[in-house]
Structures
1.
Amino acid sequence: MTRYLLLLIVLLQLPLFAIAAEEPVASHDEPAAQAVVPDNLKNPRAMLETFYRAAELLKAGDQKGMPLLISTLDLSSINPLIRNERGSDLGWMLIDVMDWSRSIRIKRVPTIADRSPYQIHTFPDGVVRLSRQPDGRWLFDNETISKLPQLFERLSKEAMASGDKTSSSAPWHLRIRNMLPGSLTQELFGVELWRLLGIFVIVLVGVLLDRIVSVILRVMVRSWRRRSKHDAYQNVSDEIMRPLGMMLLAIIWWLGLTLLGLPENVMVVLLVAVKFLTALSAVWAAYRLVDLLAAYLTHKASLTDSKLDDVLVPLLIRTMKVFVTIIGTVFIADNMNVNVSSLLAGLGLGGLAFALAAKDVIQNLFGSITVLLDRTYHVGDWVKIGDKEGTVEHIGFRSTKLRTFYNSVITLPNATMITASVDNMGERRFRRMKSTLGLSYETKPEMVEAFCEGVRELVRIHPYMRKDYYHVYFNGFGASSLDILVYVFWEAPDWSTELRERHRFLLDIHRLAEKMGVEFAFPTQTLYMRQEGESAPAPSLDAGQDALEMGRFKARSVAETFTEKPPVVSFSDKKMG
């Protein structure tokens, strides 16, 4: 109950908005506005005909007559926030007052607006008359409206004494009040006792229904989540449907307070608060429904192989929440009687300044669209953007967040994506390794050849390695080793798989070298010491042997004899992946 008491205290502060929202009342001394006067209000007779036509519709149960009836009343002194509700009650009071008074001969009412006001009935505690407004309309004037409740109370007592009653189509509070004893119609703090009791009952009923509906909705959400086996639904809160109970409470309070026919000052305080609560709960409920939709769309996106929907779902949810915020703001402003059209017109006049101030926001938005349309990267991809490198963790309207390999988060404005060079490592089909294995100079040529073929066989055996393109060759004489080039690829979906397969491949190379007795070289230096005067034997040619001829002969004796020319692979045929 403490929560509801705090809620009531906060809501009762909202009548300040009612004061700010009041429309200025035009002074009768000001010049009339240039407006077209409706034909049904242009003179006293036409106005009374309109009044009686509206009364007949309402007595027949046709609520279309209420706007017509309200149009005949001068409600400029009524707070705009409760003008419709209060105008409805005053209209019914006026209908009964006119019925209880002597009949009017419409044909005797003038059609020429030659004098104002035009008096219809005079009573000791009030008068019913028509006055011409500054804009040319004839209405039941402000003095008539202000005295109408006292006039209705006196005439209703006289009618009850004579056996007459209010109309069967009149508001409930008018009919109920006529049936209550005098003790309940006494005032306390400016409000009749039966109305105070009615407020208490309405508040209590609203709170009880809110609690009951909230418990039922919580049980339903738990049961639904328990039946569902998808991870996306397990994060749904038990309270996700809680705003629906609050909205039901607000609607019950709104309808109940409207039916009580409270005095104007009390109705302004209570009805403004309840209207605000109703609008706020509706916006809150819309937010929670968007969260529920987010869980459903996230589940559906997880069932597809495409990464595009994984990016689109968060953006769609944020768009819907922005839309709910805008519509909710307009809805709340409309319920608080704020002139939304003027507000939007003001935004239009300030549109240029807003556009200049939001230049960066618009650039970021177009950057987001560029990322989505071009599919530059997706959530989970390893990317290099300029000098920044990391895994894409989040793609928003304004920025992209990268999780670096030292676990920090970098936020990059999406505007930079329009012109930035993005290296998407996550789009690689194959992951390359280029390495040089150094064998010791003591390794025989035959063992070098055998070792290279053994490494090639490992490439052919390992399941993740690319089989159509790899190179393992003796590639150079190093300073302290015979260099073997190993140029291979893995078809790995992520970095973790690449590291695991690289680990297995390198260990198998180590085991192969150990089995073949091949030693890997490490940087060494050999120091030859020679005594003074001693010289190393120099290689010499056989007698009469030409140096060039000897070189060609030795080369032919050690070179492999090819039975056929190896196929030549053009550069365009190589698919590096």
2.
Amino acid sequence: MPEQQNIRNFCIIAHIDHGKSTLADRLLEITHTVSKREMKDQLLDQMDLERERGITIKLQPVRMAYQLQATNYILDLIDTPGHVDFTYEVSRSLACCEGAILVVDSTQGIEAQTLANVYLALEHNLTLIPVVNKIDLPNSDRQKTADELKSAFGFTDDEILYASGKTGEGVEDILKAVITRVPAPTQPQAKPFRGLIFDSTYDIHRGVIVFVRVFDGQLKNREKIFMLGSQTEAESLEVGYFHPKMEKSDGLNTGEVGYIVTGLRDVSKARVGDTVTLASEKNLAKPLPGYKHIKPMVYATIFPVSGDDYPLLRDAMEKLKLSDAALEFEPINIPSIGFGFRTGFLGLLHMDIVQERLTREYNLDLVLTAPSVAYRIVKSDGQQLYIHNPAEMPDPSVIKEMYEPWMAVNILTPTDYIGPIMEIATQRRATSKDIKYIGSSRVDMHFEMPLSTIILDFYDKLKSVSSGYASLNYDFLQERVGDLVKVDILVAGEPVAALAAIMHRSTASNDGKELVSKLKQLIPKHQFEIALQAAIGGKVIARETISALRKDVTGYLYGGDVTRKMKLLNKQKRGKKRMKKIGKVDIPQEAFLAVLKK
């Protein structure tokens, strides 16, 4: 068992694509944790999807051994994701560590997620080690990046390290800094044993395996354990640590990061953020400060392309939930499309990753609707309810107030793009809070914005007006009362529930117009004229008309008086009028999906 003062627990935090995983590879190489034969790029990114896209999705712990001045140290590293949608993974890593390596790409400088992750780390009172990475690249500007670190966070010159994750230059200095600057785990109380569950995985043979950071006491193999949050008893069938594969050990001591094989078959019994203790000490142990329950921000409905695949989709969703604590779903039936699941995600990348994993890992053909947000309604009688789609919206006469989620948005951008970014933000009902300069050529812009206007295409627009240089981060701010209305779509005078939408009154008329003109292209012509209308209550705000399919009834005439032609055309007109009264419009499934997918 390692001495407690020789353990260092740390993580690597950075903006997406600043070189975290490459730096982690070099640390594993230098500490000889992985042999040259087993070494491959992005070693800690286990999923194919992570390796393909070059992003980290799941946090990944690993234990390294390193000798400095004849003392052997145990270094527990937790590699974290960098994208805004996976902030919950970052916060879980931070709760298990005493220090963090802050990596900044010297070719790009500080970005939005860098700021967000630093504030998260400071909330957890972590020791930060700033590292300017990618110094081997020809367009690297180490001095400018160091100046940004100093002006944004107040670091001094002697605190900042320079390294290249690719070539390995300066990486030894990072390891030494971790040992000298990051404090050892605090001295424990001898009893009771307490460990924080920061992640879990499911093994078909061994059941739920929980990843824990031990804060107090010691755990050995084959001891009865107890989860304080879910009030569940289990047994430590095997304990060990990550090397980076799981390696069995005799036990886990204070300050160590490792895993416990519980044998549980129900993953909800070993929730992330729960405290694990010994069954014999369950009345003595107090829960460790865990994590807040993750609240989904974005909702979309997932349907199988073939209705027969619904049971397969249900099984796949349940299995995916085991490794993705933030996923929430419930069954739903939309008559025009069929059965599916309304699913809650943390953001658009999370939604994209879940869809991709369901398609790849479970061979499913899926259709996703456009993302939407949850609205809170306060009725006149004081009753409150959350709605995720327009069909659930009660009659406007009983609604007292309707709240929508607003986000605190910060955008980091070169100064040249301030004007265009202001323009696209104000078009989406944003209010500007302040603008701070970081260094000489970059600004940190702060806005407050409704989430519903961010999730559709704001990120794409931001990238296009800033030539790809701006970076975005957002956090939930509060729910605010909004002038929101339900826009019904009427096809030939009949409202179609599946096509209704919730919009802000100020933009409803333009959005409604866009919706009906899109439907006009998607609904095929019938034998009679079809009116497409967007309406708020009884007031029509937009209209398009699909003209009738017409047969040339005068084709066989060969001249003669024009009244013969008019007589035939009028007869046709009367027939079309009669048809319009009794005719039924067939809306193809593609039209529903195209509108739902926006």
3.
Amino acid sequence: MSRLKTATLAFFLANVAMVGGWLGGSWVSAQPVEEEYSFYDWIAPTVIEQLRADETEVTPGLGAIFVPSMTSSRDEPEVLVMSDGRVVASSPTGHRIPLEPGEYIVRVGSGARLQMLALPAQARAHQTTVVTPEWGGLQVEVVDEDNIPHRGSYEIIRASDRSLFGLGYGADTLQGESLMTWLLPPGLYRIVRPGSTYRARSDFSTVYVPPGGLVRFKLVTDPLVGSFLGAGVVSPDEFGLGGGAGDWSHRLVLGVNGSLSDSTNVAGQTDQTVISGSLFFDTYLTYTPSAPHQLIMILEIEEGLQLIDPEQGDMLPLQKSRDRVRLDALYTYFLSSRIGAYVRLGGIATVFPNEVLTSEPIDVVLRRADGTSRTIQVPASESFRIGDWLPNLSLRQGLGLNFRLLHLSFATVGLRIGTGLRQFLYRNAYIDQDDPDSAELEYDQIESYYQEGLEATLNGILRFFRYIHYTTDLEVFSDFSDLAEPAVDWQNTVSLRLSSFASIDYTLSMLYQPQVTTDLQLQHNLLVRLSWDLD
């Protein structure tokens, strides 16, 4: 008898013997997988711990059947309980299924109903029967050559009868998505490119799924064309993003944007050379344990400079072109696979002073918030300051409900609704409020303010033809004192991927902030971005 069969038999006998005594009115079983097969350890806690954590109420006189989770109940297919050929109950794994005492057939697995394992189980009054895991688990992590996860697709075919078990997708774990878990009859499976057959001689791999074990399979594909670049079973510490430890994973990205523009003798344009560039640093940290907790933290830093050399006259002073720091943390406790309670903390800041470069001599009127003003004379090609260091800092906190509205390979849509706090802090910051009928240029000082109100955020990702991505984030906040006049912040990005490290990005930011100005604030940029993963 093989070692794997010995381990499975030992586990089966341990479940039959169970543990003498009650645990909240339930019998409990032993550790799901023998220690010598730690390579196939479950992500979920032991069966005993799962039973202790389950709060399903069982009416007196009824019994219960319990199918343990290998990973997380929200990532595994539901269990069906059948009697006389009819489905009498269904439940996520890791939860008791209350039933009238009697004999039942429990169907566990992915794929069509006839492809699921059919296991006999008896419900006894006042007892919980634990179903022995005769099935195996399989998680497929789809990554690119830099070990960055993406939503690439694949198909799973069973080798014994060449039947198709289904189409699977990877997950963008950097955005808080989780991998689906296939529950399969033990055996050999072939993973192929979508649309291929069992006879495919390229873009395929095989994997053996043992009974009672969880297999972690890493599939390396080209995100642009979908071709397989490598695949294989990996150990738990190799599964997930590089640098990850246990339930934690992270990504560090360093990149540059740049442009060079030169015009000479062009009608309607000034003869000049413009060089601009920016450096950006992004880091993502996620915490996704088997329990219903999820924590996503994002840090983004982007700083850039612009140099203008006119055809006539001296080179203009170096100017800031990009200045943005963002830090966000979002924690969600999922009540189900689609709904969770969230807590959010975050902030966006401009770090360096804001200055305005003039092209001709002009008088500038700076109107202070206390009603006073001062006028300064600015020569041509000189700058004047409209914001000190850290001129603009906005802090945001909120709590409420997080909804997963759509989760497909080509589209992901989420919605958050709750209450929140906002703090907008300005340090000697001014905004353009020029009167076109006056000879001067007028700026009004912005006062810091605080808000308490209702918040709603709609975010989505759409993918077209594998290499075009559109992301959007629409946030609406209404102060309790004036619900009819909400602030709206809408961020949009269209990205055309040229290679694994190069893309062309167009960003459009629209901000309506009536507490500052009734004019719509617009920013848009077209950038060539080069980025490298630091992990």
4.
Amino acid sequence: MLKNTLTSEKEFIRDNCSFWDGFFPDRTPHKTYILIRNEQYPLILLGLAQLGAFAAVRKNAGLLFILPSRSQKDMQAVLSSFPRASFIYEDSPKYLLLKVYSYLQALLAFNFKTPDDLLDFESEGIKFGDLVYDAYLANKKNATLRNPRDPVLLKTLRDFFYVKGLVKDVLKRYRVILGVTGHVIGTGGGVFLRLLRQEGIEVWEKADALRKHTAKTGFYDCYMTPERKDIELMAKQKERFLPLAEAVLSKRFNNLDPKARLGLPYSQDKKLYRDKNDFCACFGLDPQKKNIFVMLHAFNDFPHIFGRLLHRDYYQWFKAIFEAAVNNDKVNWIFKEHPYVKYYPANDVDLPGLFSECPKKHLRYLGTEVSFNTASLRYLADALVTCTGTAGLEYSTYGVPCLLAGPCWYAKFGFTVDPETPEEFKKQLMEIDSLQPLSDEQVVMAKLLAYFTFELIDPGRFLDPFGIVPTIDFCEQKTFSAERIFQKILEARKQSSELDKKSFIALIDKFIDDPDFIRFWDLNRYPEFAEAELA
């Protein structure tokens, strides 16, 4: 035990060792491994280790962790409390040489002449260009790729080749039968997922919810992507699910949900507009025209998570809308800044400046500083435009039509407008005043998708009697300490009944064994899904 280890951390290690010794008292040798991807945040890694450990029990395998350095003694001590833990260290001479070699590989591949060349980039038969593109935007803190010869792109490409080489080396040296990751984006989790799936290895993704990636799923089926059979099941039992969906939406729009993440778009400190004339008068718009709200994205927040957009990225999508809006004065265009834009700053874009230089009477820009409660849209919006924003789903439940510009988890369920080409998208923008309110059937489908999104895969609904991932709201995340994290995990374990723990183990065993059990539902809470899974 380390001398400087936190008190709660020591207690967690003792408790964890005792629990898992009940499954592996002999610590017998193992020939197969559950590979746990290293995460930037230790709390996420701890949750992945816990999930992987249950798989290790069921599959009689060991846990294999990749740590950046042997000097991470505290983390190694914590992870060693899980069963059959083995470690690979990235500061070994072998991987230090790989970092040098990956730079040479990047130099040879660094011949992109256009941004689209990067998006088309592939290696060994797998497309990785979208992952590198998104990672570049995040690293550069840019809204778009302007220079395909940018040194930051070269570094990002080097990161890709290093992760690719590392994962392939691990797969060559160890018999990995399952991978566990917290993210499936960028040059980290995205590369991890695609390489393991190329080898036919199952991957678990634990983000807000837990989802299994198998031969039946695609690279872009992330934890938010619903299975159509589940939505169809809810549609057949809409008498039960519609009231539940409406209750969830009511809490969300009225900021009654305790999750602080809703505080920014639905803050009760911001003005809620219920009257279109009042809104138009405040912002100098013509109340006789329809209001089209463009829900802007955080430009560098991994735009290709659900696949290739109609435009190269969120910024190019914005440009296409802006150009169309300037020339279409039949409607009012209100561009609303993303509420979390401060967490994703874009160094190469000045939206306030752009709009100030375009004094069109039918265009308005609402920055995050404007007192405007997003819930106003149900009273003001005649149509919405987005790519992957939740607003397109939320306000479809009020009958507001939504024009999308690429794949997202609620696209193509019959209530969104889904153009197939940029030209078709532009045509829809120029004729957007012709969009009609959604039908009753479309609203019902939107509500079911909203229930799936805001209830079924909400992190607070994850069945967790072992304190796998403590739910910490936005405010608490700013001040929480490692000591408090371990305290919360231990508290969750002590407060959970033995019946709850046995129920979780039985369910996770089913999730492990059944290839068709793709999403980890709490089947006791949602018996309708239990019947579907068992059918």
